Amino acid sequence: MLLPPLRYLRPETPEDAVAMLSDVDGSVVLAGGQTLMNMLKLDLAHPDALVDVHRIDALRGIEHDADGTLVVGAATTYAELARSPEVRRSHPAVAEMAAGLVDRQVRNRGTIGGNCCLNDPTSNYPPLMVALDARFRVLGRDGERRLPASEFFRGTLATAVGRGELLTTIEIPPMPQGSGVAHEHLQVGADSWAIARAVVRLDVADGVVADARAVLGAVYGSPLRLPEVERRLIGQRATPDLAEAADALQDVDVQTADDVHCSAAYRREMAEVQLRRAIRAAVERSVQ
Amino acid sequence: MTTNDTREITVTVDGRRETGVVSDRTLLVHWLRDALDKRGPKIGCDTGNCGACTVRWNGTLVKSCMVLAVQVDGDEIETAASLAEEDGTLSRLQQCFADHHALQCGYCTSGMLMTAADLLASGEEITEHSVRRALKGHVCRCTGYHNIVKAIRAAAGQEVPPPHGSEPREAEVR
Ligand SMILES: Cc1cc2nc3c(=O)[nH]c(=O)nc-3n(C[C@H](O)[C@H](O)[C@H](O)COP(=O)(O)OP(=O)(O)OC[C@H]3O[C@@H](n4cnc5c(N)ncnc54)[C@H](O)[C@@H]3O)c2cc1C
Ligand code: FES
Ligand code: FES
């Protein structure tokens, strides 16, 4: 397919990129292009210029702060995250998510920043970022803002990144001692679009859940955090029986829709199944 | 000559330096096929799903329908044409595809070969499962995949059943 006419720009630094994004009318960030190219082909996005950030060194790379915070450049690819021994050790769920994304070719191009900035309901990373209390560093003309995941994801295909802004870095706090993180999904095929997705994090101390996150993906809007479920997890002994906390989902108004894969009712039911499984798996993974 | 939205690019394609003038919106797969007549990469889905357009970009496997030609300026691209010897002798991998009936119409084949070559070069363990998983980004409408998996495992030196209907020794030759 022929793309609409557009200009291609390749800045050298994050600051150059921000200058282009603010100065060039109708310019948008091009990261891995594994969604944006299709949006252009299908006439779903109509930018006048693409600002390619994939090769900016300052936006790539994986580091750990002194306190163990994982600091990931927004343009770091899934393949880089999947094969990093450091990420596998400190934040295994982040590496596993990358290793199970789409396919070999897309993993080589797709970026964690692009995945989060898209914030499609089927995007893999947003619910995990909410469960891990990630912080997002967003650079604009007037400097940098640092946002918690709860403020970053704003709704279907919407984030806090405004016009002229660039997500530069994602910071993921160190996993508390003894915590277990699990993500479970029902997918259309292996490593494919999710029909239902749940992520659970349990911070376990002396066999008791000290803190918990329960988050649904693949629902309408942004990742859905479930305080009702978390309340039922916190303070309880970390045993597989905890999966019953997923019953609380029946009182939550989970917004979703019928689509080509399934009905909204089926999706809701499957979300509960994934949540139960994720709780059980997080219990197993927590070090007690 | 470069105007606002066209520019000159120089790319090493299958070991040869190629120069061309492209519009910013030109997809890599279109430039390779239409300007350079490199017909290895095919356009199947044009949406990143089928893998028929798979090439290597600076050694990294990508789908060339999801990349702009201007993005690869100054870089190196390998298509399936780079796999055979210069005199046309097929590589071991290509010969295994032929021996094991791993292609019928051939439309998916050059993409499959690029991914198979990438997998074999990666040092990852080659098993039925790892091969199938590596081929996730590819669609073949003819073979049913079994023979493609066998061909790749054979190229890795593994023993696989001979192709259906072949003289037993045909598959043993290599
Ligand atoms: C066949 C196929 C199947 C797929 N299946 C899945 C799937 O199951 N799950 C899934 O999660 N994804 C899936 N994807 C999408 C893929 O993961 C994309 O890589 C991802 O959605 C976007 O990342 P990207 O780096 O390619 O971003 P791009 O496509 O380049 O950009 C996506 C959007 O984010 C913006 N953006 C990107 N980076 C930044 C930044 N640093 N700052 C500000 N804005 C930015 C862009 O302007 C654009 O609007 C699939 C893609 C394909 C081709
Ligand atoms: S044509 Fe590129 S993936 Fe199908
Ligand atoms: S051989 Fe025909 S599509 Fe694979």
UniProtKB/TrEMBL annotation, chain B:
2Fe-2S ferredoxin-type domain: residues covered: 7-83
Alphabetical UniProt keywords: 2Fe-2S, Iron, Iron-sulfur, Metal-binding, Oxidoreductase
InterPro entries reported in the protein's UniProt record: 2Fe-2S-bd, 2Fe-2S-bd_dom_sf, 2Fe-2S_ferredoxin-like_sf, 2Fe-2S_ferredoxin-type, 2Fe2S_fd_BS, Beta-grasp_dom_sf, Diverse_Oxidoreductases
Protein's name according to its UniProt entry: (2Fe-2S)-binding protein
Gene3D superfamilies linked to this entry: 3.10.20.30, [2Fe-2S]-binding domain (1.10.150.120)
GO molecular function: 2 iron, 2 sulfur cluster binding; metal ion binding; oxidoreductase activity
Domain of life the protein comes from: Bacteria
